[in-house]
Amino acid sequence: MKNDSLEINLESGVDEMQIQKSFIPPIGIQKLNTENKSRTTNTNFADHLQEAIKNDTNLTISKHAKTRIEQRNIEISSEDWKKISEKVTEAKQMGVNESLVLLDHAALIVSAKNQTVITAMDRSETNSQIFTNINGTIII
Description:
globular; five-stranded mixed β-sheet; about 140 residues; single chain; about 25% helix
């Protein structure tokens, strides 16, 4: 790195000042700090769930659905997620846009069109619910 010294004489009675200026390369030449920093955020259940689903299926879980799954302690095995994904794909091919997916212990609303889980609830909550805008049901 090149350093140049520049002396400035001020006529206002102030002593000489010495200013160091450093050579700064143009932006295109500057080396960016690409050091990998460890992730400081906590990984929660929903994040693990989304990662597991992405590995086995082509389904996405919305933020709302992640929250509901976590709040309601709904556990769905990777095998079930795979079955759900396969059936949602089949339903999409049959023209289904929005589907109610019923499991033994949970119910999911899934957009077959977007391959996205919209919301989730415990099966006991479904007894008094009315599901609208659904044009397909998948029972697993």
